[in-house]
Amino acid sequence: MLVISCIKQVPDTTQVQIDPETNTLIREGIPFIVNPYDTHALEEGLSLKDRFGLRPVALSMGPPNAEATLRKACALGVDDAILLSDRCFGGADTLATSRVLASAIEKLAEQEELGIVFCGKQTIDGDTAQVGPGIASRLGLQQLTLVDRIVHLDLEKKRIRVRRKLEGRHEIVEAPLPVMITVVRELNRPRYPTVPMRLEAEDVMVKTWDNSVLGLDVETVGLKGSPTWVSKIFSPERDQGEIIGDGINDPEGTANLLIEKLLSKDLLAI
Ligand SMILES: Cc1cc2nc3c(=O)[nH]c(=O)nc-3n(C[C@H](O)[C@H](O)[C@H](O)COP(=O)(O)OP(=O)(O)OC[C@H]3O[C@@H](n4cnc5c(N)ncnc54)[C@H](O)[C@@H]3O)c2cc1C
């Protein structure tokens, strides 16, 4: 039975800069990482291989250099890694992204029974949290979001029980397989590849599927198939900040100065 982890290559956000002219991310020279939530999606797939013998596959849609992301998944022990890459997939919004990912999952499920699709809760660049639910709706799968624990998996009855992490409470829910699950960080602790595992992964074939494999209508993928446009991206302007007094040598005087300052700006009521 297949367990598919969707992983996205994202820019290391501490280094991201925005082109003020085009409102797009400046991607040249930026180091990329695996979206942090997706490392947990990957780990859970691998752990289900260890515990239940499921077959873990990593799937990513992105430019050719996203192969590096999938190679990391190979080093960790996935049975297959597939990069969905084609010029016509570029510039996709969440609708078009989930269309391509769902189509690849459907293709894999023609060959082998599908058990679980894992996605991260959200990415750290797009931040929409829409792609996992988008995949589920397209494939008609149950969706269990914000999962922080797999409570029980019954492969005979084909049912899964999970714990969802919600604001101030947990919720236990059950669903039939196949299912789409989005995961949060508390689910597990991702493993690290050893040096020999990394070296071995250098020789592994990462498969690339372009649109000749998926056969999607080019009007429905990439920029053409994306009704959402990011019209503006900007960093909110911040004041320079002001250092008040000498908090180490004169904490009382500094506190008084701060109170005066806040009172003068009408930010404090006494
Ligand atoms: C700064 C920024 C803002 C954006 N804003 C929007 C917006 O408002 N609306 C919009 O429609 N698009 C937006 N996009 C485009 C968006 O990046 C793409 O649609 C992207 O492919 C998926 O959206 P996301 O990153 O928000 O994913 P999310 O929905 O947050 O991702 C959830 C999970 O889905 C899986 N996943 C997502 N993308 C991939 C992938 N390419 N390959 C494999 N798995 C994947 C991962 O498991 C991930 O953890 C934005 C992009 C950027 C960089």
**What is the tally of helical segments?**
7
Tell me the series of helices and strands, N- to C-terminal: EEEEEHEHEHEHEEEEHEHH
Assembly type of the shown chains? Answer: single chain
Strand content: 25-35%
The termini sit apart by 66 Å
Task: Characterize this entry briefly.
The chain has helices at residues 36-52, 67-76, 94-111, 131-139, 195-201, 211-214, 251-264, and strands at residues 2-6, 9-11, 18-19, 24-25, 32-34, 55-61, 80-84, 114-120, 142-154, 159-166, 169-176, 179-183, 207-209. With 270 residues, it is of the alpha/beta class.
What does this structure look like?
This protein is an alpha/beta fold. It has two domains: 219 residues, Rossmann fold; 32 residues. It is 29% helix and 26% strand. It is built from seven helices and 13 strands. Strands 11-10-9-12-8-1-6-7-13 form a nine-stranded mixed β-sheet, with helices on both faces. It has a two-stranded antiparallel sheet with strand order 2-5. Strands 3-4 form a two-stranded antiparallel ribbon. Strand 9 and strand 10 form a beta hairpin. The radius of gyration is 23 Å and the shape is globular. The model has no long low-confidence stretch (mean pLDDT 93). The site of flavin-adenine dinucleotide has 32 residues, from helix 1, strand 6, helix 3, strand 8 and helix 4.
Protein topology:
Blueprint lengths: L1 E5 L2 E3 L6 E2 L4 E2 L6 E3 L1 H17 L2 E7 L5 H10 L3 E5 L9 H18 L2 E7 L10 H9 L2 E13 L4 E8 L2 E8 L2 E5 L11 H7 L5 E3 L1 H4 L36 H14 L6
Parallel strand pairs: 1-6, 1-8, 6-7, 7-13, 8-12, 9-12
Antiparallel strand pairs: 2-5, 3-4, 9-10, 10-11
